Inverse folding.
C-alpha cells in the first residue's frame, strides 16, 4: 500500500524505489531490533514467555514483510497485484491492534494479582500506555490511509507514517540489551505468580525519537522532489511527536490509570 500508477518523467518513474528503501529500512530495524532479546534467545531455547507473545511478534513481523512486498510490487509496476493484496493489510493491522490490546489486558491483570509487589500494578498500567496509545495512533492513521485509497500521494505517506510509529519497540530492545541490568527470568519460571519487569515510561522516549529519524528522511526526500514536505508528514509527524512527548504525564494520569484498570479487568 504505497503507490498508484506513475507516469511522466524518468524522475517520477523512479520515485517508488524510495518507498521500497523505506520499507526495507523498517523491516531491517524490526528484525535486527528484536534479534538480541527475542529471536536469538528463542532460537537457543532461552526465551521464556507465553504463547500470545509469539503470536504478537509474528503479526508485527508479518506487517513489516507485507509493507516491503507491497512497496516492491508497485516499484515493479505490478499495481493490480498490489491492490489485490490490499485486503490482507487490513487483516494484519486489525489482528495487530486486537493482539496488542489483548496482551496489554492480560499483563495488567497479572500485575494486579494479590501478592504481586507493591506498585507493580500502577507501573504496569502506566507503561501499557505506550502500547495502547501507539495502537490508537496506528488504528487512526491506517483508517485514514484506507479512506485515502484514491489519493495515492496521501495514502502511501500515511502507511509510511504508521510503520515508522512502530519502530520505537524494536529500537528499544537494543537499549535493553546494552544498558538494562541482566534479567534472570528463567529463575522465576516456577514462581506462583507471573514474574514481571516494568521499566519506567520515560525510557521509551529515546528509542521512539530515534525511529522518528526515518520520518525526517521522508520529509527531506519530499523537500527535494516536490519542494516541500507533504502535509501528512507535517501534521501526522506532529501528532506522533506529541504522543511520544506526553507519554509520561498521560500514563500517570487518573483517567488513563482508570481506563487501564478497566482493560485489565476484562482479562482478569
Amino acid at each position: 500500500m504505497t503507490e498508484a500508477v506513475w507516469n511522466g518523467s524518468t524522475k517520477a518513474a523512479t520515485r517508488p524505489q524510495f518507498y521500497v528503501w523505506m520499507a526495507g529500512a523498517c523491516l531491517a530495524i524490526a528484525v535486527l531490533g528484536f534479534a538480541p532479546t527475542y529471536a536469538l534467545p528463542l532460537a537457543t531455547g532461552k526465551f521464556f514467555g507465553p504463547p500470545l507473545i509469539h503470536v504478537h511478534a509474528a503479526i508485527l513481523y508479518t506487517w513489516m514483510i507485507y509493507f516491503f512486498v507491497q512497496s516492491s510490487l508497485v516499484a515493479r509496476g505490478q499495481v493490480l497485484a498490489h491492490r489485490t493484496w490490499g485486503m490482507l493489510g487490513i487483516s494484519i493491522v486489525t489482528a495487530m491492534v486486537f493482539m496488542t490490546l489483548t496482551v496489554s489486558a492480560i499483563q495488567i491483570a497479572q500485575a494486579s494479582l494479590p501478592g504481586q509487589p507493591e506498585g507493580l500494578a500502577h507501573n504496569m498500567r502506566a507503561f501499557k500506555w505506550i502500547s495502547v496509545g501507539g495502537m490508537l495512533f496506528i488504528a487512526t492513521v491506517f483508517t485514514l490511509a484506507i479512506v485515502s485509497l484514491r489519493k495515492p500521494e496521501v495514502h502511501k505517506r500515511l502507511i509510511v507514517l504508521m510503520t515508522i510509529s512502530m519502530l520505537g519497540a524494536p529500537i528499544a530492545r537494543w537499549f535493553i540489551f546494552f544498558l538494562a541490568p541482566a534479567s534472570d527470568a528463567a529463575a522465576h519460571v516456577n514462581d506462583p505468580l507471573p514474574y514481571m519487569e516494568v521499566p519506567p515510561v520515560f525510557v521509551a522516549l529515546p528509542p521512539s525519537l530515534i525511529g522518528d529519524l526515518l520520518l525526517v528522511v521522508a520529509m527531506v526526500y519530499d523537500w527535494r522532489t516536490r519542494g516541500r514536505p507533504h502535509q501528512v508528514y507535517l501534521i501526522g509527524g506532529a501528532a506522533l511527536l506529541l504522543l511520544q512527548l506526553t507519554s509520561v504525564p498521560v500514563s500517570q494520569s487518573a483517567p488513563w490509570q482508570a481506563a487501564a484498570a478497566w482493560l485489565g479487568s476484562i482479562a482478569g
Remarks:
- Residues 10-168+197-267 form one domain.
- The radius of gyration is 20 Å.
